[in-house]
């Protein structure tokens, strides 16, 4: 954690727990942001002193007002700025003179409006740096702290939310108001609630580190529209998960590829910003959600219930159909139906009706009342083979919905296993759902949502148990690689010729076969004789991106006669198909034995930096798009995961009677490429396609490589 982050954490404590608050730009006009913020702070029972600051008013909402913040006699911890953006810098300057260390700038009219706004934002940053002020915003909803020690509603949200253990961070202020309304209806409480807007000073990384150490926060939710420091975000997530065990759930908008520029390599075209974001979140342990409902479905599971020790669930229902639906949803999410112990089965036989299904899912029959649910849920939780219980209810005429809800809440409090519920319907079950939600029992309208939330909790439990490792540092010839790359850049080359690309890869220990560049048939024959037959011959041209498309590759050449034939054939094909291409020569390389073809790639992302790709290789890579991504540097575990996420892993493991291939050598290649990506910033994009993987213990070899500078 940097010194800047530590300073901001200290100042954030002042923002969340101020002893005094000044609202700069307050007024008496009901329904306006400045007036509503004053009222919200007063109505939230704030535990400190409130100072309205207004050049025109003597008092606001019955509280004495000051003309300027410097006129306040006592110290001010937190300043909330709601002046027009054109004068906010003057107000912040006075805050600095007053000794204020924390600020929330609500005002809009900054970076989001263009050049004029950017200049205003830069003014704020300069003043904040001058006085060591940390500020949230501008262009934000504000900050809420429900801790009874503070009870601060420094926002223009309609109401103060309930106290809870969920910390919510959002780049969008408008989304915050919808989230607060959604949460209030479901009795979901928050510890801290922050709209950070343009994040001109305090950003999501600072806030994440603050919530890591916040004793009131157990679960962190975040909504992001842009990621400016991907590696910093990933490191913060890793630190939080490792040091505090708190889950981070995130929504990142902008999933579509609209507006994405065309890329010159396979990796560049396949590694869209959303695919990279998805991979980065997964790599860092961040749980990505697609919408608010999914986020809170998972959040309440983490906030209200213990993590499941394993993935064996018991389903208790009063209707067979919903039990089957829940079973299907659970299996789809990778969960398992628990096999009840003999003791549990015997107890069910004794206590449940003969018509009840005592296998899993347990069907307590449609006329079941609270006593029957008590038996089924209690016995399931007692069973050592059960890691969690799903309670399903459909409203029959004799169903005592409220009593069953209360009974489930009472039983859950006696066991350290997760209990999730789904009271299906809406109007008839509303009061029962309300009882469950008030008692912090996760409730879901659909079995799919319930199963998905449980699966996320279980996967997070597994993540906490993974032994952490660090990226391997291989012994490489970095200076040699840099020399080749820098020389090509000085020459104005956009692509590195393949023979030079192979030299760069060889410098980092990637498996490259022997060969050379031929400018004539005689030279081609000499190279082939030296490295031994069979050989491969390929056209070398900076103007040709994909050699196969211009029939510029000939494989499995066995004799000198075939070398001569291939040389002339390649020249003729290229001259006919792409006559403007300047041919630098013909590359002659040792033919690699037949194996599975995979692709390795590298791309530099604007948010996350160097990204590694792995997937099924060959000429159809962009047709099948069987690829996975990770942000460099990669650990051995990351290399394992990036392979496992593709269908290529099935082929490498030996599918349909085929022999298993040398996966371990591929993992090493991925890690070496990762090191190259970090240490050679001259490379914009890179493809190794294909990397041919041989039988176990026989390694793998680079068959073709493309490096874009």
Write the layout of secondary structure elements.
Elements: H1 3-16, E1 20-24, H2 33-43, E2 49-53, E3 59-60, E4 63-64, E5 78-81, H3 88-98, E6 102-105, H4 115-131, E7 134-136, E8 142-145, E9 152-155, E10 163-170, H5 173-185, E11 190-195, H6 204-212, E12 219-224, H7 230-244, E13 248-252, H8 266-270, H9 273-284, E14 287-288, H10 292-304, E15 312-317, H11 320-332, E16 336-337, H12 342-351, E17 362-363, H13 370-382, E18 388-393, H14 401-412, E19 419-423, H15 430-438, H16 447-465, H17 478-490, E20 495-496, H18 498-507, E21 515-518, H19 521-531, E22 535-540, E23 553-557, H20 560-577, E24 585-590, E25 596-605, E26 609-616, H21 621-624, E27 627-631, H22 636-644, H23 648-653, H24 663-679, E28 685-693, E29 700-702, E30 705-708
Parallel strand pairs: 1-2, 1-5, 5-6, 6-7, 10-11, 10-12, 12-13, 13-14, 15-16, 15-17, 15-18, 18-19
Antiparallel strand pairs: 3-4, 8-9, 8-11, 20-30, 21-24, 22-23, 22-24, 25-26, 25-28, 26-27, 28-29, 28-30
Indicate the mean pLDDT: 93
Name of the CATH first level of the largest domain:
Alpha Beta
Largest sheet composition: 7 strands, mixed
Report the strand count: 30
Radius of gyration: 31 Å
Architecture of the largest domain, CATH level 2?
3-Layer(aba) Sandwich
Fold-level CATH name of the largest domain: Rossmann fold
Shape: flat
Please give the alpha-carbon distance between the first and last residues: 33 Å
Structural classification = alpha/beta
Low-confidence spans = 258-263
- Going by CATH, the homologous superfamily of the largest domain would be NAD(P)-binding Rossmann-like Domain
SS field, number of helical segments: 24
Number of domains: 4
Fraction of residues in helices? Answer: 40-55%
Strand order of the largest sheet: 9-8-11-10-12-13-14
């Amino acid at each position: 954690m940097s010194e800047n982050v530590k300073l901001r954490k200290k100042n954030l404590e002042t923002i969340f727990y101020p002893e005094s608050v000044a609202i700069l730009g307050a007024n008496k006009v009901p329904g306006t942001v400045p007036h509503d913020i004053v009222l919200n702070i007063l109505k939230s029972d704030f535990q400190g002193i409130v100072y309205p600051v207004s050049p025109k008013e003597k008092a606001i909402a019955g509280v004495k007002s000051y003309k300027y913040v410097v006129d306040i006699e006592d110290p001010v911890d937190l300043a909330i700025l709601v002046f027009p953006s054109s004068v906010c810098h003057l107000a912040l300057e006075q805050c600095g003179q007053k000794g204020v260390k924390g600020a929330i700038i609500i005002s809009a009219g900054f970076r989001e409006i263009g050049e004029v706004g950017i200049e205003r934002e830069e003014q704020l940053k300069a003043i904040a740096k001058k006085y060591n002020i940390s500020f949230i915003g501008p262009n934000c909803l504000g900050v809420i702290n429900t801790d009874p020690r503070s009870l601060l509603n420094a926002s223009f949200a309609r109401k103060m939310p309930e106290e809870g253990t969920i910390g919510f961070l959002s780049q969008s202020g408008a989304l915050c108001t919808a989230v607060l309304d959604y949460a209030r209806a479901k009795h979901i409480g928050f510890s801290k609630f922050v709209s950070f807007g343009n994040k001109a000073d305090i950003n999501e990384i600072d806030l994440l580190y603050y919530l890591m150490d916040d004793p009131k926060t157990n679960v962190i939710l975040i909504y992001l529209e842009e990621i400016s420091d991907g590696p910093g975000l990933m490191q913060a997530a890793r630190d939080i998960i490792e040091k505090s065990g708190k889950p981070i759930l995130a929504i990142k908008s902008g999933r579509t590829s609209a507006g994405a520029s065309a890329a010159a390599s396979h990796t560049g075209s396949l590694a869209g910003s959303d695919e990279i974001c998805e991979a980065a979140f997964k790599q860092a342990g961040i749980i990505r959600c697609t919408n608010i409902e999914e986020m809170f479905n998972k959040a309440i599971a983490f906030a209200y219930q213990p993590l499941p020790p394993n993935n064996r669930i018991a389903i208790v229902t009063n209707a067979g159909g919903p039990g089957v639906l829940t079973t299907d949803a659970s299996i789809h999410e990778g969960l398992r139906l628990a096999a009840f112990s003999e003791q549990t089965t015997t107890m069910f036989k004794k206590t449940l009706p003969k018509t009840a299904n005592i296998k899993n899912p347990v069907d307590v029959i449609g006329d079941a009342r609270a006593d029957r649910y008590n038996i089924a849920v209690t016995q399931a939780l007692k069973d050592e083979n059960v890691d969690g219980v799903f309670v399903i209810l459909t409203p029959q005429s004799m169903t005592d919905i409220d009593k069953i809800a209360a009974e489930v809440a009472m039983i859950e409090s006696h066991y350290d296993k997760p209990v999730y519920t789904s009271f299906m319907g809406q109007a008839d079950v509303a009061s029962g759902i309300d009882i469950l939600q008030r008692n912090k029992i996760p409730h879901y309208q659909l079995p799919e949502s319930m199963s998905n939330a449980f699966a996320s909790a279980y996967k997070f439990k597994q993540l906490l148990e993974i032994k952490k490792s660090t990226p391997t540092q291989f012994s490489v010839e970095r200076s040699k690689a840099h020399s080749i790359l820098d020389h090509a850049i000085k020459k104005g080359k956009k692509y590195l010729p393949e023979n030079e690309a192979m030299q760069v890869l060889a410098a980092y220990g990637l498996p490259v076969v022997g060969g050379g560049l031929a400018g004539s048939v005689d030279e081609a024959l000499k190279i082939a004789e030296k490295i031994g037959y069979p050989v491969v011959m390929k056209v070398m041209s900076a103007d040709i991106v994909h050699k196969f498309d211009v029939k510029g590759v000939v494989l499995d050449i066995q004799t000198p006669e075939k070398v001569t034939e291939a040389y002339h054939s390649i020249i003729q094909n290229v001259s006919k198909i792409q006559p403007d291409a300047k041919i630098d020569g013909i590359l002659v390389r040792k033919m690699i034995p037949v194996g599975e073809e995979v692709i390795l790639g590298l791309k530099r992302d604007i948010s996350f930096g160097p990204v590694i790709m792995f997937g099924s290789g060959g000429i159809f890579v962009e047709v099948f798009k069987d690829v996975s991504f990770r942000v460099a540097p990669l650990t051995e575990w990351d290399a394992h995961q990036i392979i496992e996420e593709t269908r290529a892993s099935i082929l490498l493991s030996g599918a349909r009677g085929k022999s298993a291939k040398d996966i371990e050598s591929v993992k090493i290649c991925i890690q070496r490429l990762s090191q190259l990506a970090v240490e050679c910033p001259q490379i914009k994009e890179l493809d190794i396609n294909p990397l041919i993987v041989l039988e176990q213990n026989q390694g793998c070899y680079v068959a073709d490589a493309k490096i874009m500078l």
